[in-house]
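Subject: for your reference before the review

Hello V.,

The reviewers asked for a structural picture of the protein, and I figured it would be easier to keep everything in one thread rather than splitting it across files. Below is the amino acid sequence we used in the manuscript, unchanged from the supplementary table.
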Amino acid sequence: MDATILATLGLTLGLLLLAFAGIAIKLIVKKNGKFAGTCASQSPFLNKDGEACSLCGAKPSEQCNAPSK
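And here is what came back from the structure prediction:
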């Protein structure tokens, strides 16, 4: 393999590992390991019609209370 291919592959894998490590650190640091507002329907960019969350039933103006597993 060429050195540039190996360097690109190494950089790609390094960045992926950094992203996963960041998510893992966030889960450890956050209280109870929860991400706030995880319902996609709460986003005005994804929910242009203002429909309620299919998981918890919250409207976009309300806070999502999705049950934790």
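For the response letter, the relevant points are probably these. The helical segments are 3-29. The first helix runs from residue 3 to 29.

Happy to draft the paragraph if you're swamped.

O.
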